[in-house]
Amino acid sequence: MKIHKKIHKHAVAIAISLTALAFGCRQATFDTGGNRHDAGDAQPDEPQMDIPVSEVPPDVKDEECGEFRAAQLVPLDLYIMLDASGSMDYLLEGSTTTKWKAVTKALKDFASKAEMEGLNIALQIFPYMRDVPRYCAKHAECGEYGPCNPLRMCDEFWFEDGKEVPCNSNADCNIDGKSATCSVRGECVGYPGTVCLVISGICSELAVNCVNTQGSCEKRQSCDVADYSEPTVPLGPLSEVLSDFKKALDDKEPEGVTPTAEALKGAVQYFEARLAQQEHKYNRAAVVLVTDGLPTACDGKEIGIEGIIETASSAAPQILTYVMGVFEEENAVKAKTNLDAIAMAGHTESAFIVTTSQDVTKEFLATLESIREHFISCEYTIPDNYKNFGHVNVMRKHGDDELDIVKYKPDCESEDGDGIGWHYDIDPNVGIPTMIQLCSSTCAEIQGDDAWKLDIQLGCVTIK
Fold first, then answer.
1. Which of 114, 177, 184, 452 has the smallest C-beta neighbourhood within 10 Å, fewest atoms?
2. How far apart are the C-alpha atoms of 421 and 157, rounded to whole Å?
């Protein structure tokens, strides 16, 4: 897919409506007058590789040489992989709203827009939590995902060297000639995942209280790629999944670590399996990775940024990886360097970063719309089993204006090309095309104006 770099330069600022191109054209039909031939009746058994073109075309708009069909965009599938680690519950700078609330509001607003109709969307949240209680007091409560992490630890070992030694009684703290008291293990208020001793009263470095917490099942947070390769909200048209999409966001509370490597790999595996199916093989697919942190170890296994980059770069060419991050100002620069590398490997050039000092909901929504604009390209399906590639034309109509021919230009994107016209994704003289693509300038013109409607004409000699 050709990427229009101008979109990325102004990613956060762009919020263009693509209703006409992306969705309005799905119902576009035009009265050409007279009887129409069934283009399928005249097709050869094999693809026509040498395209005859007419330099001085007849008026194909009125000729009885073919039929018109509404232009159908190549199916577009979007898998949102959303970080819900504990840090997403932190407050935005100077606000009473958390990062989680701000980001999920933008996602719900994005999905609710009328012009999003026609886009397939799926949702998964990471870390994936297995079906055991969030808190536990006994190992038995965790079943195969135990043990239940102890609620106590030996105080002196913690005070002296920060070593967390679980215990059930003082006897458990007599180790190597040293002894300690088995004290209640706590958590610093507002900092999920931290460890402290309740007898201390406060977490001095953070200036917050240390409070008693319950234990948690050790393997409740999944590090299994398979758990991320199936979305929580299954992929489907927005009109069908919107309610489940919103509910999944509303029901979730941030917690846990950031297993980015496993999450992204699972999403890529999902799309690779889907694209291997005959009915979806020409779909466009994209993972939107939304995170507020750098990847963390999972099950004690550290997978660095290099492993995540490899996952994005090794995905099938039609699987894009967009990356969105929300970070405190002091962490944004380092985060962008790493996330840019993932985005570049995923064929989307650079990550989109929003800082917590900005209006996160507004900026996230604008960024999501920029991603939509980039992802929804000017690519259209070729009707099933149609092989007469030398008898295809693209027609467009602006409002009440006359029907206009978009000319076939296979070299429109070459160094000497002007970006005007249309072409096939594969030269018919070399292979069998799978889709019709508008050239970049024609695409940009249509995307910026919702009055344009497109038809594909089958049966008339291709106009150059």
1. 177
2. 73
Q: How far is CA 119 from CA 12, 151, 237, 261, 278, in A?
A: 21, 47, 6, 26, 19
Phi, psi for residue 106 in degrees, rounded to 5: -65, -40
CB burial of 239-260 (b: ≥16 within 10 Å; e: otherwise) equals eebbeebbebbeebebbbbbbb
Backbone angles phi and psi of 27, in degrees to 5 = -110, 5
Q: Are 391 and 462 in contact (CB under 8 A)?
A: yes
Helices (H), 211-259: 225-228, 238-251
Residue 158 tokens, joined: 């913690």
Q: Is 71 helix (H, G, I), strand (E, B) or coil?
A: coil
The amino acid occupying position 132 is V
Amino acid letter, 306: E
| Helical residues (DSSP H) of 170-319, grouped into ranges | 225-228, 238-251, 260-275, 305-313
For the chain, domain boundaries:
5-74+379-463, 78-127+223-293+320-375, 139-212
Q: What are the Cα distances from residue 141, in Å, to 14, 88, 144, 306, 393?
A: 50, 27, 9, 37, 65
Q: Is 395 exposed, middle or buried (0-12, 13-18, 19+ CB in 10 A)?
A: buried
Using alpha carbons, select from 246, 239, 235 the residue that is nearest to residue 284: 235
Number of Cβ atoms within 10 Å of the Cβ of 298: 22
Residues sharing a CB contact under 8 Å with residue 161, sequence separation 6 or more, in sequence order = none
CB 157 within 8 A of CB 163: yes
Here the tokens at position 1 are 């897919």
Q: Which residues of the chain have pLDDT under 70?
A: 1-64, 114-118, 150-151, 161, 166-169, 172, 175-177, 297, 300, 302, 377, 448
CA 76 to chain centre: 11
pTM of structure: 0.69
pLDDT digits (tens, 9 = 90+) for 25-76: 333 333 333 333 344 443 444 444 455 554 444 455 555 677 888 888 888 8
Query: Pick from 54, 220, 18, 201: which is nearest to 139 by CA?
Result: 220
Q: Which amino acid is at 69?
A: R
Give the architecture (CATH level 2) of 78-127+223-293+320-375.
Answer: 3-Layer(aba) Sandwich (3.40)
Q: Find how far residue 237's CA is from the centre of its chain.
A: 15
Residue 125 burial by Cβ neighbours in a 10 Å radius (0-12, 13-18, 19+): buried
Q: What is the pLDDT of residues 408-440, one digit of tens each?
A: 999 888 877 888 999 999 999 999 898 899 998
